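fyi for ur records
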Amino acid sequence: MNRFPFTRLVPKSHKALIGGTFAGFIALTSPGMAADVEFDINGTDEDLSIPLQNASSSAALAEDADAQEIIAAALSDYRTMVQVLYDAGYFAPSVSIGLDGREASHIDLLSPPQTVDTVKLSITAGKKFTFGKAEIAPLPAEANIPDTFAPNQPATTGAIQEAVTAGLSAWDRAGHPKAELENQHITANAIQARLDATIAIAPGPKLRVGTFQLNTEKSRVRPEAIRAIAGFPTGKIYNPDDISKSATRLRRTGTFSSVSLKQAETANPDGTLDFIANIEDQPPRRFTFGVELSSSEGASISTGWIHRNLFGAAERLSLNLSVDGIGEGDQDVEVSARLDRPAAFRADENLFYLASLAQLNEEHYTATQALAAIGVRRTISDRSFAEAALGFNYVTADDAFGDDREFTYLEFLLRAERDTRDVKNNPTSGYYLSADITPFVGIDGSASGVQFGLDGRAYRSLGSNDRFVLAGRAQIGSVVGPALSDVSPTLLFFSGGAGTVRGQEFQSLGVSTGSDTAGGRGFLGLSGEVRTKITGAISVVGFYDIGWIDADSFVSSNSESHAGAGFGLRYDITGVGPVRLDLALPTSGDTGDGLQFYIGIGQAF
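which gave:
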């Protein structure tokens, strides 16, 4: 924002204003400096020494600059020092800058000195000003001007700038995108230490949104697809939130590296305002890789390949492979694919297809599972979405109730998520909530029912710089309808391991069926962590986890349970997240097997 013009605030004489209650003298010397620097600061009721020193170009250059550079810096410092004082509310200061005892502004630039040995900045702040008149008009009804811009409040340039910004923003939100500062009249009265400010705004006409003009020289996405994804509000009364939402929709696809929507310079004669969109693509392909290590689960490797613009309409294809239990005998292997087609129905509605094939070799069962589904994803806000899908699920399993058991389901997959975390892989505030409801209809003799799942996490920081973070997690699972023996083991719940109860063996807690163990129809898991930052990159964590499993659909005080506790170390790598090491021991229950360790990337939850 441009500087505000003031009626003569700096007296003609450098010595005209003397006063104030604070005086300070600072000398900065060093054997290697080309010139000594002194600050003599008087008349402030707050410590402005550091801001003035940091703003001074002549002080910064004194160490190794030549005389001409120091003189040029000193001349610019008059304005700089005055501006620092204006920003703090001192509108009648006196600034003197001496170079070897000569006022810098009086030096003849045609025959300057060859050397400068001493730079002395003498600053008298004078009285601190308050607002006398503080007016800004016209304003729409919903305008919210900061309380700092009001009569009898401390007068600062920051308060004036904030008031202008708030006024222009209010008109912008009221449908006047071409509102501008028309004029301002600002007068300082040095005797009364009062600043009168009158600001006039020209709101301009109320406009409707015009055309969506595309500059796609750096994009391979078809223009009609970009328009469909953006859902641009052509014809509606201008609202900056609607324009921002269109840009967000484009960014959300992950296809574009740069999205900017710029207003046309002038409105159209019909009262509309066009926008120019500049779009630039991300590299079309991306490869991902991850690894985790646990003493009870072995190593887990996941890898993925993504294409961000498969058919030219920002379609996103994800192919993923995960292998779990490496080093622990038979492994779990899953291959999955998902194709998302943005704006298939409306701007915020994506059509998706997914398929997966898995060979599961778990602690208490083995299974082969094939799943295919088609669904719709609805984006509710920047932090919330919901999905609904119809899928076919086929499972063959060997478990506690027999071998070669087959289950065939028609499934309705319903999911909703809200995420307000500040940083997803290392949050310090906010919460995460995910809810799943999966009604399944049995085919060829398989029983029907409903599976419910809930995962809630919350975070709160304490102390300065988020030094302490409290983190909590609750997981709830339930299968309602069929008897325990009539449910596919892939729909049941176990507890133990990195994702539920650390310190306990992976999937060690289930429902006893005599000589074997089955998953439960009811599950509850609770986890708590205290994260303490030791340095900028290193943190320590203390945690406690507890889990319950029940043969019934909901856990109770009679449900089987186990718990674990321990501590961990985190080393934060910029751009990657914290590398995690957790050590845990069982604290209750009879499924533990001594010390367990877990290594991965990102917080445990």
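The first strand starts at residue 23 and ends at 28. thats all i got for now
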